[in-house]
Amino acid sequence: MTDDRLLGADEARFIAAARSDDTTRFALLTERYRRELHVHCYRMLANYADAQDMTQETFLRAWKKRESFRGHAALRTWLYRIATNACLDFLEKRNDRTPVPSELPGAGSEVLYLQPYPDRMLPEDPQESVVARETIELAFIVAVQHLPPRQRAAFILRDVLGWPASKAADALELTVASVTSALQRARVTMREQLPSRRLDWRSPATHELTSDERGAVKSYIDAHERNDLDGLTSLLRDDLRFAMLPEAGTATVTAKDAVDGWVSGGLFQRGYDDWRGITTTVNLMPAVALYLRTPEEPVYRLFAVAALHIVDGKIAELTGFDAADQPWLGLPLTL
């Protein structure tokens, strides 16, 4: 959606609402942008709960600054500017929102605060969506976290949202030259952080799962329900990238290391051998919600969500999340 399409009626109505202190009209005019602003904050912060807080902070700041809006830019642009700076202020105050070195040799760094994004919360109208699959998948979100905050903001505004340099510079209160330099450095870092098969984040993308993805998800669930470690192992690429969040020290870069860790943790042994799985999606990726029934329990309880990146029918990246404290995923707690 272009700014030109928004200039005019919305801006005039917003100015009228601001001048009359009409909170109801203000809410109606701004609420339509909530989901895409939330996605924007999530890209900046990689954490669903933080993004929720900063989206709300965006609306609070917009109300407080309502009289400063003159309609020189589209309302959407103005809100994105506020959201970006709210995220930058948040990152300036938090020293726990950067990747940390992995405890395991060769595993790089870990983004322990990473949370999955429920697809049901993404913008509904594909023509208005600011989401392409490559730019919401977990590998991309993790790579973005390796950028310094202002460089991160410049990259997202320019390469993800497609803003011209002048508009991004205005939003960040930087010169065009500074934004251009920040973008060039950001692109280098992104290409260093993303796996080689994931380098083009600007190509057109479909949101539909492929037959390979659907088949691998089914096999992943079947292996758990059959208590079949060999079957699970056969689904993994040798260069599997694995992490279980928010636990530190779980990141691995080979299937063997991942499987060894699962076995030592008791996977498919007594107490961890009665599984059920349901197919879901997060971050526009195939995912499985895993439910475990222990010997003392009459029901299967939600245990974890496994987000899968599948290449040629095999799992190339597996990110597990403790699902107990993530109610926004909308999953049943028991089966």
UniProtKB/TrEMBL annotation:
InterPro entries: NTF2-like_dom_sf (IPR032710), RNA_pol_sigma-70-like (IPR039425), RNA_pol_sigma-70_dom (IPR014284), RNA_pol_sigma-G_actinobac (IPR014305), RNA_pol_sigma70_r2 (IPR007627), RNA_pol_sigma70_r4_t2 (IPR013249), RNA_pol_sigma_r2 (IPR013325), RNA_pol_sigma_r3/r4-like (IPR013324). Gene3D superfamilies: 1.10.1740.10, 3.10.450.50, Winged helix-like DNA-binding domain superfamily/Winged helix DNA-binding domain (1.10.10.10). GO terms for biological process: DNA-templated transcription initiation. Interacts transiently with the RNA polymerase catalytic core formed by RpoA, RpoB, RpoC and RpoZ (2 alpha, 1 beta, 1 beta' and 1 omega subunit) to form the RNA polymerase holoenzyme that can initiate transcription. GO terms for molecular function: DNA binding; sigma factor activity. Residues 140-189 form the RNA polymerase sigma factor 70 region 4 type domain. Belongs to the sigma-70 factor family. ECF subfamily. It comes from Kribbella speibonae. Keywords: Sigma factor, Transcription, Transcription regulation. NCBIfam families: PRK08241.1, sigma70-ECF, SigX5. This is Sigma-70 family RNA polymerase sigma factor. It comes from the Bacteria. Residues 30-95 form the RNA polymerase sigma-70 region domain.
